[in-house]
Automatic annotation (TrEMBL), chain B:
Transmembrane segments: 54-78, 127-148, 160-180, 208-232, 253-278, 284-304, 316-339
Name listed for the protein in its UniProt record: Permease component of ABC-type sugar transporter
Sequence ranges assigned to domain ABC transmembrane type-1 in this UniProt record: 123-336
Subcellular location: Cell membrane
Domain of life: Bacteria
Lineage: Bacteria, Pseudomonadati, Pseudomonadota, Alphaproteobacteria, Hyphomicrobiales
GO cellular component: plasma membrane
Membrane topology reported for the UniProt record: Multi-pass membrane protein
Keyword Transport: yes
Amino acid sequence: MSDLLRRFEEQNKGIKVVLDQVPFKAINENLPVQLAAGQGPDLARVADLGGVARYMLDLRPHLKDAAYFETNFGPFLEWMRVPGDTSSIPGFMTQLTLTGPFVNKTLFEQANVPMPGPKATWEEWAKAAKDVAAKVQAPFPIAIDRSGHRFFSLAITQGAKVFNDKGEPAVVDEGFKKGAQLVFDWHKNGVMSKELWGSVAGTAYRGANDEFKNAQVVMYESGSWQIGQFDKTIGDAFDWVAVPTPCGPANCSGMPGGAALVAIKTTQHPQEVARLMEFLASEPIAAEFYERSLFVPGHLGIAKKGLEYKSATPQGKAALKVFNEGVSQLSPVATKLQGYVHNRVIFNAVISRLGQAIAGESTLDEAYQRIESDVQQQIAERTRK
Amino acid sequence: MTLTSKTSPATSPAPAASLAPSGGTNPVLKLVTRVLDWPMAGLQRLIGERRMPYVFLLPNLVFFGLFVFVPIAINFVYSVTGGPALFPSERPYVGAGQYSYLFDCGSYVDPNTCREDHFWRGVYNTLFFSFFQVVAMVGLSLLTAVVLNMKIRGRGFFRAVYFFPVLLSPVVVALIWKWILQRDGLLNAAIMGLGGDRTLFLAEPGWAMFWVIFVSVWAHMGFYTLILLAGLQAIPTDIYEAAEMDATPRWRVFWRLTLPLLWPNLIVVIVLSLIRAVQTFDEVFVLTGGGPGTSTLMVVQYIYETAFSNQVQNFGLAAAASVVLGIVLFALTLAQLAFTQRKSS
């Protein structure tokens, strides 16, 4: 990003851009407080789009060609808008993400267990991964990030609808329960280790990327954003592949997500912010950024043309292809949940309560009741005026 | 600096006049005292000698008020408001709503019956942790201090060894122990080397709480040992010599002489370790993250996560919980003070 910004500064002599690189945790925890206090930056790259939507600046009056943004980022702009707003353009997607599994192919080969095919179910994968782990002594047959986002990629395949007919959250339904039961049972029968979902409290995120890189995980349900680091750090230590999201009775959908670069309302330089946004969102620059960072493009024009990902290894390129194809498998429920302004409330409640059930503090039925009441209470608090 | 008072010359204590520095031989100090002399004398004439101590306390009071009392007041304001807004002026007044939500329980001894069960789990975990940590901390610190007070070989070395963990940052302490206790950590390697089975120490509720207490005692024991050691060294040796001449058994000497004479230091240790235990956060947060489930979730972590870390930030509820915690700590301190006063009288 910094060399793209330098190029922008060369083309726009009067504008100086200061880039602050902060941890992901700071973006999620500190930035909202900064924004609420009116002390935020001019623009920021954020992942909780709905959560900070109310602090975003509508760039339309400052953009030279607002239609370009509508055409190329249209479906994702909804994720950045506050409820009721159907037209603002606060920024653009710097990265479209999709959840999905990575598999340690070498472990399958060592165990001499055939890898399930593209339409295999979660149960088939669980059985195969457990067989592999038993034969090669891997401690994690399946690892799923401790994240609501990742859980729903499983639950939606089992038929979770998340919303009722009126469009209000109705999180716990039969599909959701099937998904939760699978995760719960996998912890009981050793398909999943308690070290992720059962080892921390509340809404804390726990990933298994380090364990996957150390060849301790047979199948790792995470997402497309891991490709870059796996490509760089695993090297030729073992063969890894991305596989399509396993299927359930309802579908084979992952969960979409991503990060967007958005303008902040309190900026004193809206014109300059718009210039920078136009520069970074322009097709050649965006394509260069997606290609170098090995991201799935959030730009429809670029996605249609496809990217070569010249810097990726053959494994990385193959993984990107799988995730790019996965976009067409997305369930409408997944897209709606991603665009729902209070989706973090749902994700938080699910991680926290399911984590307690896995740790043995409550039954699944108690967890379901708590999830419903947490979602209700937190949305009421968040919308209180 | 010499302060003179025309309003109450008779009450001016003579020693103060003689102790008042005139700057000594230091010319800079002399100049400063001369410059300050006349405005202070003027002020004393204006407000009277009795009020002068408040003038010296004022800078500290302002500082303390600004950074302690004002935040407490703001915190209280937050606790009676709701909604997601940051500025109190934009937050709707909800009265005791946050408090009634926190205290909405079927039975206070069963967190499962409480609407905000995480808060109550935090409260019970904190009580459990505080009790066992303080008992272990005081007992082990006392034992260590007594041993380090004896004439043993390498006494200086051992004193340094016990104090060394106190110098480490709590985060560093937690990270070190995390490396030791994790799946492929040192402890599991040792256990497996001896033919035992691997244990997920930080993923089993009972083990997690045990290690949280253990690590906390390990990290802070040196500080309390030092206080008790200072107390032991202040006990006059002739008392022990007299006891020795009377052939008093050693346990009796400890029980009847050492312990009562060490009592003021023990009270300090108990008060400090108890307050610290109730406030504990950083080590536990890094070591277990409050897990597994909520088995090591402490009340301070609950407050932090409710306010800042949950992404759905609930400042009002977190503020109400911190007011409750503040009241409990205040009550604990008062109880300790009363106990100490009764004991010393």
